[in-house]
Design brief:
This protein has about 110 residues and is mainly alpha-helical. The chain has two helices and no strands. About 0% of the residues are buried.
Length: about 110
């Protein structure tokens, strides 16, 4: 192989390597290309996700507010129940005292 053949063979090899690189680059660009319709779809999905997150945040806020209201109502009901039970206990005690008093009066008169 003389010098001219070597230069031509090297040039051909380099040209083939260049073509293979160019083809690989073109193929990669073609496969990973994002079209305008894909971008529109991604924008719509992002908007839908944003709206879903806002709805979720509103639902969580409503749930926490509702839980707070119900907790307060439960505390009020417990306080009212304790007050009613204390009043009932006092009324029973007073009724027992009045029975005892009436029985003592009846015993004295008899």
């Amino acid at each position: 192989m003389n010098r001219t053949e070597f230069v031509i063979a090297t040039a051909v090899i380099l040209f083939v390597a260049f073509l293979m690189g160019w083809f690989a680059s073109w193929l990669l660009h073609r496969l990973t290309r994002v079209t305008q319709s894909d971008m529109n779809e991604l924008d719509q999905m992002a908007q839908a996700l944003h709206e879903a997150e806002e709805t979720r945040d509103q639902a969580i806020s409503w749930y926490e507010q509702r839980e707070s209201e119900l907790t307060n109502r439960l505390r009020e009901a417990d306080a009212e129940l304790r007050a009613a039970m204390d009043g009932l206990r006092d009324a029973r005690q007073e009724a027992a005292e009045l029975r005892d008093y009436i029985e003592k009066l009846n015993e004295r008169q008899a």
